[in-house]
Amino acid sequence: MLQQAPSLTRLVGELKKLPGIGERTALRLAFHLLKSPQNLGCLAEALLQVKENIRNCSTCFTLTEHDPCPICSGNRDLSVICVVETSQDLMALERSNSYHGCYHVLQGAISPLHGINPDDLRIRELLERVTGGNVEEVIVATNFTVEGETTALYLSRQLKTLGIRVTRLAHGIPLGSDIEFVDSATVQWAMKGRNEF
Predict the structure, then answer these.
(1) Structural domains counted in the chain
(2) CATH number of residue 125's parent domain
(3) Does residue 194 register a pLDDT over 80?
(4) 3-state DSSP: the chain helix, strand, coil percent, rounded to 5?
(5) CA nearest 17: which of 36, 1, 30, 4?
(6) What is the CA radius of gyration of the chain?
(7) Is 62 part of a structural domain of the chain?
(8) 44-77 pLDDT, tens per residue?
């Protein structure tokens, strides 16, 4: 049937490129969109609008419609920069409403296996921001993965040569967890990062 509808075949192919979407899900989504043409029009319009309006902030490199982004142009603590891998990480930290400094989005993490080196990230721009301003602390908030830890170590070495205080997000046992169900690596990090009570 799809051979008779090349545009539907193309739609399914494009949907399959999205993360977590396989052939069957892409086909199901395509048929759902076709059932309600107004939804299809709204989706197409939203995609075009994102393509035209979304860009990276020239200061922190998060996704934004206005340059500089509302965070960089707002009333934030300029002496602290929180470094994250992606704009999604920035949004998660903002949802917590616990941080009021600036951000810097690396747009990835160091991963030699995937061909991502420090020069492929926004590290040079971070170092320029730190040396060119009144930054007192950089919070490294990369993910707790091998790539995130590698990136954190690389950043801490680079920043400490500039005399900047470098801190790392705490990690350990999540609130509301039973210790018996937490993996051993998390327990190990929690023990190493314990604080005075």
Answers:
(1) 1
(2) 3.40.1360.10
(3) no
(4) 50, 15, 35
(5) 30
(6) 21
(7) no
(8) 999 999 999 999 999 999 999 999 999 999 999 9
